[in-house]
């Protein structure tokens, strides 16, 4: 996956161990399981990261979701689900990040 390759390529001596752990555990062991497809896993990740209000990571995972093939409308629906269960202040932040990522992607 391009995103994982870029994370590893852009890591320095300090951050490489955590990036390798992320690649092995998250992208390998978890994402490699056959019971859920990548689109489902991506949707879940967007919702969980949005619920945790991790805006920088949310932007990264949005890029991954777009690369995997989630549509703008599907991503919006994930975030509307978060708005209902987490709250409107989080939703406003989430949608702000989403607009920035979509703007980036269209340029």
TrEMBL record:
One Gene Ontology molecular-function label: peroxiredoxin activity
SUPFAM superfamilies noted in UniProt: AhpD-like (SSF69118)
Highest taxon of source: Bacteria
InterPro entries in alphabetical order: 4CMD/NDH-1_regulator, AhpD-like, CMD-like
A family per Pfam: CMD
Residue ranges of the TM segments: none
Gene3D superfamilies cross-referenced by the UniProt entry: AhpD-like
Domain Carboxymuconolactone decarboxylase-like per the UniProt entry, residue ranges: 18-98
Name listed for the protein in its UniProt record: 4-carboxymuconolactone decarboxylase
């Amino acid at each position: 996956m391009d995103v994982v390759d870029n994370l590893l390529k852009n890591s320095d001596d300090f951050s490489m161990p955590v990036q390798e752990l992320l690649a092995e555990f998250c992208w390998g062991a978890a994402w490699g399981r056959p019971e859920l497809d990548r689109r489902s896993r991506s949707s879940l990740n967007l919702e969980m990261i949005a619920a945790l209000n991790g805006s920088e990571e949310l932007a990264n995972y949005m890029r991954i979701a777009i690369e995997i093939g989630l549509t703008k409308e599907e991503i919006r629906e994930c975030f509307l689900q978060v708005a209902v269960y987490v709250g409107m202040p989080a939703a406003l932040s989430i949608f702000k990040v989403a607009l920035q990522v979509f703007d980036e992607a269209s340029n």
